[in-house]
Each structure stands twice: as structure tokens, then as C-alpha cells.
Amino acid sequence: MSNNSAIVILTKHGLKITPQRIAILDVILNLKEHPTAETICNYLRPGYPNLSIATIYKTLDTFAQKGIIRKVLSETDTMRYDGVAEKHHHLYNTGSGRIEDYYDEGLNKIVENYLKNKKIPNFTIEDFKLQIFGKFRDNGNK
Amino acid sequence: MSNNSAIVILTKHGLKITPQRIAILDVILNLKEHPTAETICNYLRPGYPNLSIATIYKTLDTFAQKGIIRKVLSETDTMRYDGVAEKHHHLYNTGSGRIEDYYDEGLNKIVENYLKNKKIPNFTIEDFKLQIFGKFRDNGNK
DNA sequence: TACTATATAATAATGATTATCAATTATAAA
DNA sequence: TTTATAATTGATAATCATTATTATATAGTA
Ligand SMILES: [Mn+2]
Ligand SMILES: [Mn+2]
Ligand SMILES: [Zn+2]
Ligand SMILES: [Zn+2]
Q1: Which residue from B1, B59, B80, B121 could staple onto B72, CB 3.0 to 4.6 Å apart?
Q2: DSSP letter (8 states) at residue B95
Q3: Distance, angstroms, CA A17 to C1' C24?
Q4: pTM, two decimal places
Q5: Domains and CATH numbers, chain B
Q6: Closest ligand (CA of B78)
């Protein structure tokens, strides 16, 4: 039960267990679409009519600070959130807001290795991420 | 004279030559720091006291649409603009807003080649960009 | 020089996010 | 189990980057 894993995660990070945090964490971990705060709100409103959008923002920020989730930059003025905390890259559908995860350990190794030899002057690399732009061949969404 | 090259570029893209466009293009092409609209405004206000921030936004957007400049996503809620239109990557200084260009044709080739063989299912790649996060070893700016 | 479409400046509006703060609640101590 | 207390939440106001509006000014052209 995903509900349970949310509690485990909250506990592990020393966060108080609240119904709002459980619900929000549950959604962000199971949704694959890099939702906005607003999207998450829409998912949860039926079950939590009083859930405040401010609480969602604050909670997502708390999770991101703990490293439970990540923030994803988008083309528009809207922050997207990512339930996947492990290293991965993103496929951006040009023109629409669709963003999908892209895992590629082989690519990681190749780039990592290249950059290790390259030694960028005056800069110490901590991490890198690929933004891959293009078009999904299935349409069916904006 | 950079002033002149601005006029050439505007002409090439069929844009009317105005003092504002010349000034804005001149700044964005010569500034290496991926400025915000506000930063550009501050640079130009001494010479153009009536220059409107709305004009700057609209002008930058026009330039971006023509492919003369690019928009750069940043960690904060503020759009950054990039006078370099050619393919390149970015070094993000974690914690501060500093963003610097990173050109690496070798890296481009390697990744390009890797992805060409890889064939991501259901996705046609148009372009890719690396976000490299880390720390600049010279401090001296935020 | 005069005409017309376009650009600009001033300012209002928008929309995402953050701040504020009183009321509620999760946790731990008694 | 009750109580105490610090943290969280919800309601709402404020902020701030960006966009829309519109009257005026101007670049390009005849
Ligand atoms: Mn905004
Ligand atoms: Mn914003
Ligand atoms: Zn992701
Ligand atoms: Zn750049």
C-alpha cells in the first residue's frame, strides 16, 4: 500500500505525520507526469475539500528540501514537481508542457567519464542533467 | 562597432530598426551573464530614461522568436536571456544564480552519437542540452 | 513630406508563488 | 489518558515577474 510507504518516508526524514503530507506525498510519488502544485490540488480536493494550495506549495518545498522529491524547470512560469529523486534525465515535448523521465545508465557513464577527463577550468562538477527536446510520436495529449 | 552589427542583425530578420531594439540587442549580445529583463533595464536606463520594462520583455521575446537570442531556464522564477544562439551548454553555480556558457563540440558528438544508436522509443529527438551543476572556484560573485 | 503600420511607454491586470497569522493538530511529557 | 507545546494548516493578503491594454510616437515607404 503506497499510503504506508509515505508514512515510512516521512518518518525517515523526521517529518510529522499529517493527513495532508501523506496525501500529497502519495500523489507525487505515484503520478508520473511531473505535476504542478495546482494539478496535485485537483487530484486531492475531492478527498480533502479544505486542502489549501498554500499548504501544497509549502509541503512540496519541504519534501524537495529533504530530497524526497525534486523541482523541475519548465518552459512556462510554472514549477513542476518530480516524485523520482534518483538521477535521471527529461524528455521535453517541444511546444507542449509534457515532460517524461529518461533513465539511461549508459549515457550517464559516458558523459561522466568524458567530463572527468575534460576538467572544466575553474569549475567543480557536482551533477549534470540532460534536457532532451523533441516530439513524442504518440500524440493524444497536449 | 557592435552597434553596427545589431543593425545588420535586425535588418536580416526583417525587424524595424529602432533605438530601443539596437540598444537591447547590443546589450544582450555583449553581456556574458545571461541577464534578466531587469538587468538589461538597469544597464540601459542611464542612456534611455524612458525605456519601458514592457518594451524590454516584448523585444526580448521578439528576438527569441526570431532565433537571435535564447531563453534560459533558471532555478528561480525569473527568465534569463542568452545572446548566444549557437548550440552550447550551461554551467549552473549551485546556490547562486550564476550561469556560464559551456561549449564542447566533443561532448556534443559523443552524446549525439550515443543517442543516435539508442533510439528512444516513441520519441524523436530534435536537440539536447546539458545542465551542469557545480561550483565555480573563483568566488567573488554570488 | 505625408501616410500607415508598427513599436513604444505608461500603466493596469494576471497568475504563480510566498507571507501572515489565527486556529488546529501531532507528538511527547506528565 | 490528559496536557502542554511546537509545528502545521487554511484562509487570505501580499509579492513579483510577466503580459495585456491602449494612447502616443515613430520607422519605413510612397
Ligand atoms: Mn508569473
Ligand atoms: Mn511567477
Ligand atoms: Zn523526472
Ligand atoms: Zn548561454
Answers
A1: B80
A2: T
A3: 14
A4: 0.88
A5: 3-73 (1.10.10.10), 89-134 (3.30.1490)
A6: 2
